[in-house]
Design goal:
The structure is a single chain. By secondary structure, the protein is α+β, with helices and mostly antiparallel strands. It contains 24 helices and 9 strands. The chain has 2 domains: 387 residues, no CATH class; 133 residues. A hairpin with a 5-residue loop joins β8 and β9. α1 packs parallel to α5 and α17 crosses α18. The termini are far apart. About 3% of the residues have low confidence. Its main location: membrane. InterPro entries: LipidA_mod_glycosyltrf_83. Keywords: Cell membrane, Glycosyltransferase, Membrane, Transferase, Transmembrane, Transmembrane helix.
Length: 592
């Protein structure tokens, strides 16, 4: 981008970008996404339980792994959440606020990281001291850093994941802080303590970083081997690095190889029962010699093929600019996770980095490839949330592409001979930013209107209203029965009734059991949870709990049933309905 912008103006623009980004992330945060999903209420209630009792919902004191539904959540987000619940109470705002703040801080960290990377012209070939003339496309590191931070602020990938309470977004913030302090460490060994601390926090906040962060550290050692060789001759520097690293990373490795760590990975592993079935089907289909069958159709080959395909998919136009992921909790259908207006600039940025082939190009492209690995090891790849480890690389490379393109236009001989060619280039820059503004307006408008209305079902919408109805009528009924159709109703009841944790995990009538590698709750207090198919059609028939430990007979008592549409015994009376924002029915509430 031509011309020099005064340093003070850069700060004003950066503050404006951060302020706008914060507003976009916090605006109407309690209402959009349209409801807390089951992961958000689990994070919230476990933090509430820690605050109230010092124990999680299973009654374990200050755990480092939260058992939750059997998904074994990492502790980072939950412990960070505790003071927010203390300040604002147990509600949507408090649960989502840490993610909002993390997403906003990540914008500032991106600016600082890009400034540090390019301030000394590490992209210059041969390690020569760069020309300080603006003619170098990457010389004005502040322009590049500012544009990178702007794209992190507005791109769908980073914007969307900064509004719900997702552990991944907080882990990204920790990781970026760790990387920034690593860049500071290259000039001051003391900062390795800060770097190790934040990188360590990332691996205890989201599972993808448990794979990515150690690999990225190896990449840093390779890229900055000269600096490491110079700095690590000092014993004090080695101690600064090893002590915090051992504190965070050694327990992580032991936990990963434990039963709990393996349980988590089994739930998302590429090689599952379905994969084994596909291998058997391929053997039956081709009917090769038994030796060649085992040689070609086996688990290692299946894993390698699918893993490679998954990694490549993270660079595809379909994923980045087409439809994004398949999970509607992490992206808007028919919108990519990056704006189409940036597609050409991203490609140009990649080509530029491949052409210069220096250590910063190795760092950025290596970061993208390594960032795709955690998601690629799982089913449903490419996965918007699990591949958050890639961020903010696409935004940085896009910014490089933008800077290179406009510098190239300025340097063209026929352009430089055109009168007012500087004004022409500025006009093209305005056109680019106008395209960005239009893209943002279209996306944000869809997010706050159509998306909230049409896809509210993917957020378990309606639980809050249903639980509040049950809570306000609690004394009128002997038993309250909830359908399990929309998933984990017990956690929503715990969250919205704010039941004291001790009264839950120490309850004598709590029915909790394991089935299909998941923990289910059939009862606590006067609340019962049943599958749709276990709701009887005749009023004299009992409700059968899936655990088989109890039946609910409502013939001689007063029962409240909160069910999906049409699943109700005959002669029961409809009291209330809970609708999705698009007008469709989510829950029907009956009494006998």
């Amino acid at each position: 981008m031509p011309g020099r912008i005064k340093k003070g103006l850069f700060k004003i623009i950066l503050l404006a970008v951060i302020a706008i980004a914060f507003f976009l992330r916090i605006y109407n945060i309690s209402e959009n996404p349209p409801s807390l999903n089951w992961d958000e209420v689990s994070l919230g209630y476990n933090a509430y339980s820690i605050l109230d009792s010092g124990k999680d919902e299973w009654g374990k004191t200050l755990p480092v792994i939260f058992q939750a539904y059997g998904d074994y959540k990492l502790p980072g987000y939950i412990y960070i959440l505790v003071p927010f619940i203390k300040l604002f109470g147990l509600n949507e705002f408090s649960v989502r606020l840490p993610s909002v703040l993390a997403g906003t801080i990540s914008i500032l960290l991106t600016y600082l990281i890009v400034s540090k990377l390019f301030i000394n012209q590490l992209l210059s070939s041969g390690g020569k001291k760069p020309d300080t003339n603006y003619d170098s496309p990457i010389t004005n590191h502040q322009s590049l850093a500012l544009l990178s931070s702007l794209l992190v602020a507005i791109e769908p990938w980073s914007f969307f994941l900064s509004r719900p309470a997702v552990e991944a977004n907080l882990a990204l913030c920790f990781f970026l802080a760790g990387f920034y302090f690593f860049l500071r460490f290259l000039h001051n060994p003391y900062f390795i303590i800060h770097s190790s601390f934040f990188l360590g926090l990332s691996v205890w906040t989201y599972n993808s970083y448990r794979i990515f962060t150690p690999m990225f550290i190896v990449l840093l050692i390779v890229v900055f081997k000269k600096e490491f060789g110079r700095l690590f001759v000092n014993r004090k520097t080695i101690a600064y690095c090893l002590v915090p690293s051992a504190f965070f990373f050694l327990p992580m490795f032991f936990q990963l190889i434990s039963g709990v760590g393996q349980e988590r990975y089994k739930k998302v592993n590429i090689i599952d029962d379905g994969a084994i079935g596909q291998i058997v089907n391929l053997r039956n289909k081709y009917e090769l010699d038994p030796f060649f069958e085992r040689l070609i159709f086996n688990q290692p080959v299946y894993f390698t093929y699918n893993f490679s395909k998954n990694v490549i998919s993270h660079f595809s136009y379909k994923f980045l600019f087409g439809q994004g992921g398949s999970n509607y909790q992490f992206s808007i259908p028919e919108f990519g996770i990056l704006y189409k207006v940036n597609a050409v600039f991203l490609i140009i940025g990649i080509i530029y980095l491949l052409k210069v082939r220096n250590r910063i190009s190795i760092l950025l492209l290596g970061w993208w490839i390594l960032g795709a690995i955690p998601s690629s090891l799982t089913r449903e790849a490419p996965h918007v949330l699990r591949s958050i480890t890639i961020l903010p690389v696409p935004m940085i490379i896009t910014s490089i592409g933008v800077v290179v393109v406009f510098k190239y236009l300025l340097d063209l001989p026929f352009v430089s001979r055109i009168p007012y060619h500087i004004s022409l280039t500025r006009f093209l820059i305005i056109i680019y930013f106008l395209g960005l503004v239009i893209s943002v307006c279209l996306y944000v408008t869809n997010y706050f209107t159509k998306y909230r209305s049409v896809y509210s079902w993917s957020w378990q919408y309606g639980y809050k209203e249903a639980v509040e109805y049950a809570k306000s009528n609690y004394q009128k009924f002997d038993k309250i029965i909830f359908t399990k159709k929309y998933g984990e109703p017990h956690e929503f009841v715990l969250f919205y009734t704010r039941l004291y944790p001790v009264n839950y995990f120490d309850s004598n009538n709590l029915i909790r059991y394991r089935q299909s590698d998941w923990f289910w709750v059939d009862r606590f207090d006067k609340f019962y949870f049943v599958n749709d198919w276990d709701i009887p059609r005749q009023e004299w028939q009992p409700f059968v709990l899936e655990s088989g430990r109890e039946e609910v007979d409502c013939r001689n008592i007063k029962c409240l049933l909160i069910t999906s549409p049409g699943n109700v015994p005959k002669t029961w009376n409809l009291l209330e309905t809970v609708g999705f924002p698009d007008g469709k029915i989510a829950f029907e509430i009956y009494e006998n």
